[in-house]
Amino acid sequence: MTTLHTHCDGDTMPFVREFVRDPLGVASLVPSGGALARRVTAPIAASGQPVVVELGPGTGAFTRVIQAALGGRGLHLALEVNEQFTRLLAARFPGVDVIPADARDLPEVLGGRGIDRADVVVSGLPWAAFGAQQQTGILDAITGALQPGGAFTTFAYVHARWSGPARRFRRLLDTRFEEVVVGRTVWANVPPALVYHCRRPR
Q1: How many angstroms separate the CA atoms of 50 and 47, rounded?
Q2: Strand positions, DSSP E, 9-134
Q3: What would the DSSP string read from start to end of 161-179?
Q4: Residue 69's pLDDT is what?
């Protein structure tokens, strides 16, 4: 995203309000842009009936792209703890199963819906704002919920990449996945971000 006009007009103000209310939980003044959303959602298969889980969807920057990629196929679940965002997402995306739940509850959420494993997990969570226990708990939930050949993608803001929590998270990824590839920086996003492509949970 080069300027704010790449967001839907209704996205920015709810994001700003929730950032002011809970800056650590929201972690950004604006939603992610289209260029970043396309990189993060790239693992979604173009055919079949994939189960796609979205963690921390916010106002739906990734949700919109996931829905377009699925085109009515498969299942799309979105776990969000912010009540304002949950209501907005449910109204905006009727084809998405929006669930007010913590990411650490992912295996239980899937089990409660009769779903064995997810094919793709996409995360918009603010990892650098989490402590070690929370990072570990969420990653354990993700690896426990993914198919053996499943994919997990998330992103990090370039300016925060070298902070202690961000570096710890990067190390944790290597302990949880056999393959972790760091994508090229998405300079068009505000702020610039890079994507972690993770496959084959350990």
Answers
A1: 8
A2: 51-55, 75-79, 97-99, 118-123
A3: TTSHHHHHHHHHHHHHEEE
A4: 97
Classified as helix, coil or strand, 127 is helix
Residue 54: pLDDT band by 50, 70, 90 thresholds? very high
| pTM, rounded to two decimals | 0.84
Nearest to 153, CA basis, from 117, 194, 188, 198? 198
Check whether 53 has a pLDDT greater than 80: yes
3-state secondary structure of 98: strand
Assess whether pLDDT exceeds 80 at residue 185: yes
Q: How far apart are CA 126 and CA 124, in angstroms?
A: 7
CA dist list (Å): 197 to 89, 100, 102: 25, 26, 22
For residues 37 and 145, the answer to whether their CB atoms sit within 8 Å is no
Beta strands 146-157 and 177-182 are unpaired
Distances (CA, A) of 143 to 1, 16, 26, 73, 191: 30, 32, 23, 23, 28
Residue carrying structure tokens 């426990």: 144
pLDDT tens column, 135-164: 999 999 999 999 999 999 999 999 888 899
Nearest residue to 43 (alpha-carbon basis) of 61, 71, 70, 64: 70
